[in-house]
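Section: Multi-chain targets

For targets with more than one molecule, the full set of components is provided together so that the structure can be written out for the assembly as a whole rather than chain by chain. Components appear in the order listed by the source. The example entry contains two components.
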Amino acid sequence: MTRETPRLSEQDEAFDAVLTLPDPPIADQPAEDLEDLALGDDYALNPEYVEMVVDAADRNDEARLRELLDALHSADVADLMGFLTAEYREDVIKYLDSEVLAEVISELEDDLREEVLEATPSAALAKALESLDSDDAADVVDDLEDDKRAEVLAAMPEIERAAIESTLAYEEETAGRLMQREVVAAPQFWTVGQAIDHLRTEGADLPELFFDIYVVDPSYKPVGAVPVSHLLRAPRTSGLAEIMEAVTEVTAEMDQEEVAYIFNKYHLISAPVIDAGGRLVGQITVDDIVGVIREEAQEDILALAGVSDAGRDAGVGDIVRSRLPWLLLNLLTAAVSVSGVALFQEEIVRLVQLAVLMPIVSSLGGNAGTQTLAVAVRALGAKEMSAANAGRVIGRELTVGLINGLALAAVMGAAVFAIYHKPLLALTVSLALIVNTFIAALGGILAPLALEKMGRDPAVSSSIFVTFLTDFSGFFAVLLIATLLHA
Amino acid sequence: MTRETPRLSEQDEAFDAVLTLPDPPIADQPAEDLEDLALGDDYALNPEYVEMVVDAADRNDEARLRELLDALHSADVADLMGFLTAEYREDVIKYLDSEVLAEVISELEDDLREEVLEATPSAALAKALESLDSDDAADVVDDLEDDKRAEVLAAMPEIERAAIESTLAYEEETAGRLMQREVVAAPQFWTVGQAIDHLRTEGADLPELFFDIYVVDPSYKPVGAVPVSHLLRAPRTSGLAEIMEAVTEVTAEMDQEEVAYIFNKYHLISAPVIDAGGRLVGQITVDDIVGVIREEAQEDILALAGVSDAGRDAGVGDIVRSRLPWLLLNLLTAAVSVSGVALFQEEIVRLVQLAVLMPIVSSLGGNAGTQTLAVAVRALGAKEMSAANAGRVIGRELTVGLINGLALAAVMGAAVFAIYHKPLLALTVSLALIVNTFIAALGGILAPLALEKMGRDPAVSSSIFVTFLTDFSGFFAVLLIATLLHA
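Its structure, encoded as tokens over all components, is:
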């Protein structure tokens, strides 16, 4: 909500003007109209706008480039960077002033950010970082190479440097890293009037935005919170202790996923962060949490698919490195799975249809297992599954596996019989499908539960185990049952 | 942040007392300690606490049950419901007072909520709903059966009924449904002092919590916003028009996923909602958005796995219905895939190792395709991919597919040659792997892009298409290359 915030409303006056006046040639449009051109109907950056920036850079048209950048919110400049090649990005960086550059850097993804940081002189960076909140500044400093980090920190004022260094002392992905040190605290004995007067006189030292005032005891432990909107509404003579509410604290060491869970569960807007001694050391606001929730959910999607995202701007080498190990691991498990098949080669030569039908049984098992797995990972993430109902959930999944297996077996058995007119072959495939769908349910629910129990992320490595299990049992069940039945 | 908010800090005084005093028998612990017992280290409800509730219900111990429930935040009571069977849930509902019941109902998932709504008399429900914000109340009313909905609405005061009915007039999953009608607006010519005095005198009619005051023109169109924390800091004589900031509006018809994107991108805490005429009709606050972001991400996880979540409390029948259609569709595509194999049965009889190796080629193609797909779905969701960079991304994915294919082919070719000593067989499998990994990359990137282009959700139905493609091309490539090479 800064000056650059684009107006998203289609009822915007400037937009109406665009609609009613004849369109001037693009290059002559005044800056006002650029804001409307920048974003598409889906509020993402317009590809045409990216073209306009590239065009201005190609023509070395400084004034135009500056105008195009000025019309964008810093989040959109960060987006723009993602759509440009390295050379155009440098042109853009040149024309951003220090405060905007700081915001853009803080919005950039890791890989792009590293590149931009390398290209920016240490002194300019130190100046830019001073305008950020301590959590955002620390986040950026953390991404600097060791040498440059020392230079940048040395160029910053003592107080900002200390704040960044103590933030970085917390482990990654903890509340300590997410929190900002700027916080509004008031003693229990203050009145509403005293608090408001304090806010008005100390304005300069306060956080840019805040939503709750934390009431602290003499040892600086939070004992309650007063939402700013309640402070405004209460009589000036009320004591803070009378109108304060119970407060949900988070500890600085808490994992960010836990923090996000608490914010979501209790619909928090901000929460005080306390150190091991229970003292107030900072606050986390919900806008930081929105980012965490997105990240964590996206990590689950990628983990289930066996891939870590190398980032929008990653090179081919990075992407290969992020995907090939998983594929090699799958090659290994697939080789183990089919080694069972090798034992039954005679069976296949005798009844070649088995070679045709086996992969169907394995593939359906894999699908059924993936379904169960995705549901289990979601339920574990939402803490909807625990020791209190694990038995019930497992029983339900196994029942579902059995019913789905019976249904698939009926359809496939009938089809096989209709095509090949071999009742024993149809029976073999049907029985194998029932067995494999059941095993898929078993693996799909137990693998993530076991990983969770071991304190590991249930989304990571569950899927390779389940696929391995259903491949192996699919091949094996078909061939073993065929042998036993003399199909 | 209500009275029931549990204290989550381990440094809590009551918690210290539990640690230093000898443990009294569980049944005798005072209510203070119950708050600490309720939540585990991971801030989820303790399974032991669920046991205590069940135990109290079994003993018909009303006082104890009430005590156990009083110690819980309404979000935790909702959680508790999820872990109980229907019969125990009814015991719990009996002892909740109307305001808490309203909050619990609003926290419940759909399937549980319907059950609880059926069990609650219309008059009690109408009373409970009055204490909720208009968006939450409308959400609950929307879940009522037609008869009961009419009864409940008839029993509510006119003003609340009108608010709920006009919220329900908006489509599901739009900003209109998410917004609350309670909003603080002020005319442009007011000073800070006038605004503060207004807030203090009109306290009762204001939203329970608010974070921004929207400045409106005479036709009630928002022209700016003043964060409450800025209002508090500014001199009383400043005009609102001087200190207001540009505002990011959302239209009432906007899809909730777009709203979430905007909140995340611009780090918004609240946003004014405007109608088609540009007039202020409500506001959306970020705590509503946190829920939307979680939901949308979870929908993607489940869609990629080909399953819709039937919910924590769903019966076996519901779950089978949510999964079997997808499995039957997979059975069909798998049957089509292997039908190619049937054409080459003689080839398999001649060289039975093909039956062993084919599934590996298909399976690796499937894995590679799923990796590409997951990354593409994530990038599309984050709007990191658009016409501006689609060509570049596609080119990069195909290059990665080719490199991964070459690497896998080298490993597998060498292994096949070492085991079977058949150079042509090794060559066949290697070539087939390269072809299939490339096709997987092609399908994995083009399928979601095509769905997105058609305005469909790229997570839904991409994965079945990609699996079908890689299964089919895996089998076909192996058998066709083997035939051509006379392997």
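The radius of gyration of chain A is 30 Å.
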